[in-house]
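Hi,

I'm pasting everything inline rather than attaching a file, because the server keeps stripping attachments. The sequence lines come first, and each chain or strand is labelled.
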Amino acid sequence: MVSGKPSNKKTFKYSKNFNFFLVLLCLILVFLGKLDLIAVRNFKAFVSDFIAPIIYMFNKPVKEIAGVLEEVKSTGSLRDENIRLKSEIRRLRVSNSKIASNELELLELRKLLNSIPQNKIRIVTGRALTSPGGTFANTVLIDAGTKDGVKIGQPAISSLGLVGYVVNVSFNSSRILLIIDINSMIPAYLTQSNWPAIIQGQNSQLLKIKFLSSEATLIEGESLETSGHGGRLPAGINIGNVVKTFSGKYSVKPSVDLNRITYISIITNFNLPQDANNDFDGFAPMQKPKTSRGLKGIDSSGKRKIESAED
Amino acid sequence: MNNNLFFYFIYNLSKSIFFFIGIFFLINIEVSLSFFLIFNTATPSLVSIIIFLFIKKFNYILSNFNLICIGLLNDVFLGNNLGLTSIYFLLFKYLTENIRINIADEKHEDDWLYFTIIFVIAFTVTLLINMLLNLKIPDLSPILYYIGITLVSFPIVNFIINSFYFIQRLFKS
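And the predicted assembly:
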């Protein structure tokens, strides 16, 4: 059908079959895309690279308007905010002095124990070009790519905690799958009780707690951190806090406000399992050796078994 | 004769390109709307409203190729599975065209109702495909919010377009 040409019943009938053929073609494309073929990934990376500056150009004014509106809204509560911030500063000063003395003590103890020092993380920070506005996917495009040392699978963080991990990378930009996405599963542990669990996204503002032991008791407000199990993410990154929903179920509220995220940092010196030279065996229990399958009356070497008379 | 055909082709091509750029611009606005507090959970599908109004009201059919390209761009934009939005757009176009041809509604009084039916059907099909691909059921609250906010946005967008149309006619007269 030619664009702009008003359709009638006859042409509509002819275009019906063609329309279904196109839908079928798109369906095949969807399933091919799900297979994560290199060609599809490269195509996505190329297009992302191409449209990244255009997206930024369009997003910038809307973002500014939204920012101004929020600032106008917050002027009403400036006095209360000021009082709250003053008390927060007082509290932070006290905790700061405590932390400084604790840090000194920690360093001395580490020296005594001769423990292995932790590697310093190297990060690359990029500006978020899009916002997570999709219904089916929650991803963010940032302006840091392979030229900055970003690779697929590397964790993305912000000053408040975990944001997600890189799923697609091109020369100038990379796409980050947010922790709230339905395809995101993060191995974590409860910081107070030390119970491990898996935190899964639900395409909503809250995260689901899965595979938590029935013995574990959840406390409202308890924080969760990455456990590092599986070797995909480094341990100790803040994820969020446990909250009780209206239905009485426990969920996790991410510590990072993902809708207002402006800058995202990628940990670039974290060795992923596929990158590491040493073979990573994982944390799965050892599998039992497979029993050899053979024909009845014939042993594994192919010889006939001598059966007893009773059998 | 050949000259006329050539100009007709050029005219349609320029129209297609104009629409493609227009819809691309609209997708950008749609995505960036999520910076506003009210659209944090989901943004309204402005593209669906525009496609519906152009087919139903202005009798203007977007080409399938255009819709597929816009869908693919939208998928790359949002990080969806490639082709998912194209399916949605094609289904949406087919259903809207079907209603336009088979149901006589000269005054466009039931447009909101038809839009609701078409939007819900096309979106449900896409949602089912997405669920089949992920083998997971997503949280329904953002999906319902998305449907709700799109249906609420329809009369607003319709009113804005009508106003533009009215002003244009006023200037012409």
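Residues 2-172 of chain B form one domain.

If the labels don't parse on your end, tell me and I'll reformat.
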